[in-house]
Amino acid sequence: MTPERLRDILTRVARGELDAEAALEAVKRLPFEDLGFAKVDHHRALRAGLPEVVYAPGKTHQQIVAVARALRDAGQAVLVTRLDAAAAAAVTAALPELTYAASARIAYWRAADSAPSGRGTIMVVAAGTADLPVAEEAALTAELLGNRVERVTDVGVAGIHRLFAHHERLRAASVLIVVAGMEGALPSVVGGLVDRPLIAVPTSIGYGASFGGLAALLAMLNSCAAGVTVVNIDNGFGAAVAAHLINRSA
């Protein structure tokens, strides 16, 4: 149940186009639907501005399908994150209307196509090619939430001149998501070039002393560029949601 759908139901009731029983049928799943193993939150879009999202790891294929189907049947957008190829094959076989984006490890279904509603553009900047799965998770999530998104890839500090070629595009963005592994230096560099909100995403890419992304996380938390906000390691989804909320209210 989205704010737009609930508003439409109430408007139709007020006009006499929809009776009380039909309206009740439309909203009866609020605030959640109990599937036994999970309680699907159909009220979340009304409270938080985006529907419940399915995190695939730890769930069986059948559980993922059941939650995704419940969201779809309620007329909500479906977004399944961190979906590997085997799980994606099972999920899309059961729900062929879902699209699987392997680069982002996301399966999704749009309840309705609409023009982007964000006020500006979210720019997703990836340091290296190895960071692309996390960067694409952020970019696609932001797009599915209704934002205009641009991508800048492979502009890490090992060849910093590549970043400077995009300086004007960086400054034109409303919000930036900067994704980097290894030593995690890129967000500090970008933060020194722009006057926009910047969300840094450390990735688990790197050799032994990167400690699975901990080195990049600590570097970003200690950034000397003021205003850099940091999410958890590999959390492209969380960065996209934060950027969406900023872009919606900017």
How many DSSP-defined strands?
Answer: 11
Looking at the structure, the CATH topology of the largest domain is Rossmann fold
Radius of gyration, Cα only, in angstroms? 20 Å
The shape, in one word, is globular
> What's the CATH architecture of the largest domain?
3-Layer(aba) Sandwich
Protein model, in words:
The chain has 250 residues and is of the alpha/beta class. It folds into 2 domains: 3-109, no CATH class; 121-249, Rossmann fold (3-Layer(aba) Sandwich), CATH 3.40.50.1970. The chain is built from 11 helices and 11 strands. It has helices at residues 3-14, 20-27, 44-48, 61-73, 85-94, 132-144, 161-164, 167-172, 186-191, 214-221, 236-249; strands at 32-34, 39-41, 54-55, 78-81, 99-101, 106-109, 121-126, 148-152, 175-180, 198-202, 228-230. A 5-stranded parallel sheet has the order 8-7-9-10-11. Strand 9 (175-180), helix 9 (186-191) and strand 10 form a beta-alpha-beta unit. Helix 1 packs antiparallel against helix 2, helix 4 (61-73) packs across helix 5 (85-94) and helix 6 (132-144) packs parallel to helix 11 (236-249). The radius of gyration is 20 Å and the shape is globular. The protein starts with a helix and ends with a helix. The model has no long low-confidence stretch (mean pLDDT 86).
Walk me through the topology.
Blueprint: H1 3-14, H2 20-27, E1 32-34, E2 39-41, H3 44-48, E3 54-55, H4 61-73, E4 78-81, H5 85-94, E5 99-101, E6 106-109, E7 121-126, H6 132-144, E8 148-152, H7 161-164, H8 167-172, E9 175-180, H9 186-191, E10 198-202, H10 214-221, E11 228-230, H11 236-249
Parallel strand pairs: 3-4, 7-8, 7-9, 9-10, 10-11
Antiparallel strand pairs: 1-2, 4-6, 5-6
